[in-house]
Amino acid sequence: MKRKTFKAPMRLKQEDDAGGFMAVFSTLNVIDLDGDVTVPGAFDDQPVIVEPWNHSWNLPAGKGIIKSDEEKAWVEGEFFLDTEAGRENHQTVKNLGELAEWSYTFDVLEEGKGDFNGETVNFLRKLDVVGVSPVTRGAGIDTRTIVIKRHEPAEEIETETQPGKVSDFMTLLNVAEVEFIKLKMELPN
Known about the structure:
Low-confidence stretches: 1-16, 153-178, 180-185
Structural class: alpha+beta
Shape: elongated
Helix content: 10-25%
Largest sheet: 8 strands, mixed
Strand content: 35-45%
Mean pLDDT: 80
Order of helices and strands: EEEEEEHEEEEH
Distance between the termini: 49 Å
Number of helices: 2
């Protein structure tokens, strides 16, 4: 009887979505390091690009959705773990932990000068965010990573089959495919 060995890279779904993250990129109603005060209502919930480290001009590292409340604006996103840029940025943010800061690129739709706690500042009232980026040092106050999900590299598994056992291997592949489809459906578009 002849034996055949099949090796297949397989990534099984974890409870958390690999590559997912949440980060605060703007604190509202404070003077930032550029002398701007971003006010509540300046941000709309919108999809954005996750730019590579320090807003570099490389390929995007991921995508996300920005959200805000009366105190802060944040991004809920995913790093593209199937690209070099996504993997490197994900691992860097994960390794830096609380040292990572965040920033954003934007177009100003509405702004105006005014007084804030005795200082003349520029009030950012309405912004169109183009992208968010992990950075070495941002202009924002108290920007930070809230959550960064694990990334487990694909593992090779070895499955031995014998005549009549190919169906067992196919069942294993079908289960992995169903888990992959479920994972894709759960990720933000």
